[in-house]
Amino acid sequence: MSALSSPHSSPKRLPPAPPGRELTLDELWEHLYASTPRPLTFTATTRDDWLAWRATLTAKLRELLGPDRPRVPLRPETLERKDCGAFVRERIVFDTEPHASATAYLFLPKRAAAPRPAVLCLHGHGPHGKDNVAGVDGGNVRRRIHIWRSHYDYAASLARRGYVCLAADGRGWGDRSVGYYRKSAADPTPPFGHDDPCGVHFVRAQLFGISLLWLNVWDDMRGLDLLASRPEVDAARIGAMGLSFGGTRALYLAALDKRVRAATVACYLTSFEAYALRTNNCCGAQTPSGLLRHCELADVAALVAPRALRCESGIHDGGFPIDAARKAFETVARCYAVAGVGERCEHAVFEGGHRVASRTDFDFFERWLRRAE
Predict the structure, then answer these.
(1) Is the pLDDT of residue 11 over 50?
(2) Spatial contact of 342 and 333, defined as CB atoms under 8 Å apart
(3) Nearest of 346, 259, 247 to residue 300 by alpha carbon
(4) What domains lie within the chain, and their CATH numbers?
């Protein structure tokens, strides 16, 4: 059996391959991963080499993801407003490109009298989108427990600490989905059957030569535009935070947009080999086409330097193996050291699974977004 075979496959039921033959796709992926050179892997040892590497990989990443989407005025509109005690939560909608509008929660702390730091809070894979990071459970006890156990409500938690927060739905999720659970009230059949909406939309995007990952990162860049336009926000002190797919978005956003001064990436840092090939933990919304011909995931994370980066990894996170996460962070830490800012990156490894490390520990943002106060 190939080293990359899925633990859920049934190789014993297959006849043995003839001598010298390789029949499964797993064997092809293993061969390609082992034989493909990745010339943009981080190897710099001097600051000048680091700067040259960063410029080259950034340009390559932008090339692979695609050109900027058509930019349109945001036209923000408040749909509802709720007093939540320590903050006011607005449900808003804004435009990101022609034929695309995003729904979001905007958190406005009551004690934020002057321009304050802000955090773009990005949700993970799941039908409820922004509701989880907002702590909105719809009265569903199971969802409430899931949010609590995953420490998922980080937008609300940060807002209580005085941060202006924006939590927007990714494409295909929350208000921007045709309905993960049902097609309509009259037809309870899931619109994609048993298929993952990310996989369906990834295939559709490929038909047009579009990266689904880039569509979401573009929308997140427009989210930065919206935060920077608010009088309550200090545009020089904006961070990003996300869990899982939200961590993917936060990482690529921070790698490509220097307006992100500090980023927390929870349960995403690992390697493409470990999570996409060996565990089959694949998601179309998180897949940058062709990137393994140039570098690994750790190299993308290293692009965030010299700005602050916190990576969180659960020891028992089966989807993003901890050994690969530790190895990936070694590359990140080496890059930050070469850049002369080793103190600006950290790896929080915790006893747990696929969740945010802590509901109360936001010292990272306090250190890198509030130090000017």
Answers:
(1) no
(2) yes
(3) 247
(4) 77-369 (3.40.50.1820)
